[in-house]
């Protein structure tokens, strides 16, 4: 019925049921892993949320590279709304923008690159992290009433860490998913 | 421990209220909390959530899971404001650390605002069933194909949570240590990747079964239930909208 053969040019825009449902399911997995990462972050260094940020970067990339859009927006919105509703993070409102706009930015750049080398993943991740951490930084200033310099320092560290760590994992996972034929 | 707040389907009082009114209540509380800088006002706004829950005969134990998380956030905020706040006069100085007198009031504002956002969202989810959520989204002209996904997410969240628990236990049984923080960081790929792959397999099967039931074949979908605003909903919605407008104007 709805499942269709997807050409190379259409792989980043998929409205078939498999992609939409996949976006929802990966959004839930994203939320559950984020809970674990945030608990670890809270014990290690609460202000930076390095592990949580890395999980965000990895899952944003995996969802859009596997199911394209609008699954990326659906998965991101799902994670943000559940994290707000479960008390995982009061920044959940800002996660909506970070996740949704982040996933749109990721795919907008990824569709212009071959996404076969690690360099492409690093470039895309760097720009996506800048956008994502801009919104999270705004959230820390508004919700937590943190000073601008602290929010900026946390955001810069977050961008650097996610740009270094996330592409390595993302590339391996996306490649293995494509090989397995699960997407 | 389940992440999602429990929806009580036997509560007729909750069923009586339209989901649009519930959504407007959540938006009003969060909006008022954002636009208030007075800590006393913010505490009053925060207290509206448990009070309304009691009036709606909801269990306050719904919120107990979130208390430890909010306590962690509160402690983080106090430490961060003490270390980095530069507003007001210096009230205490030691070595390179200067504590300003506005640090703790700002931390209090952050804690109450964060708690209000979290509890308002939790209350909305505990008041709204997955089908009501779907109907609510459809009332806002979101196509049923996309509105169904919100309900699907709410339904599958506990299932995938349980699966995560099973994966954790099976990895422990295989000898992977998941005790200390360092163990948890090391074991993160070994628990998250099986969950990711398993969820993808489930999503493929779910999508197939949905399509076999005709999902997406027709542009419209029929439901056993429909949303209708009653007098109480209209009255309370007018009051909430009015209160938001007053805050914006003042």
Computed over alpha carbons, the radius of gyration of chain B is 23 Å
> What is the average of the pLDDT values of chain A?
83
Main sheet makeup of chain B: 2 strands, antiparallel
Task: Assign an overall shape of chain B.
Answer: flat
What string gives the helices and strands of chain A in order? HHHHHH
Describe this structure in words.
Chain A has helices at 17-44, 50-67, 71-85, 92-110, 118-142, 148-180. Chain A has six helices and no strands. Chain A is globular and about 45 Å long. With 250 residues, chain B is mainly α. In chain B, strands 1-2 form a two-stranded antiparallel sheet.
Write a concise synopsis of the structure shown.
By secondary structure, chain A is mainly α.
Blueprint of the fold:
The complex is a heterodimer of chains A (183) and B (250).
Chain A: H1 17-44, H2 50-67, H3 71-85, H4 92-110, H5 118-142, H6 148-180
Chain B: H1 12-16, H2 19-35, H3 39-55, H4 66-84, E1 90-94, E2 97-100, H5 103-127, H6 130-139, H7 144-173, H8 181-212, H9 231-249
Antiparallel strand pairs in B: 1-2
Q: Which keywords apply here?
A:
heterodimer; A: 183 residues; mainly alpha; Arp2/3 complex 21 kDa subunit ARPC3; 6 helices; 75% helix; 0% strand; globular; disordered N terminus; B: 250 residues; 2 domains; two-stranded antiparallel ribbon; 9 helices; 70% helix; 4% strand
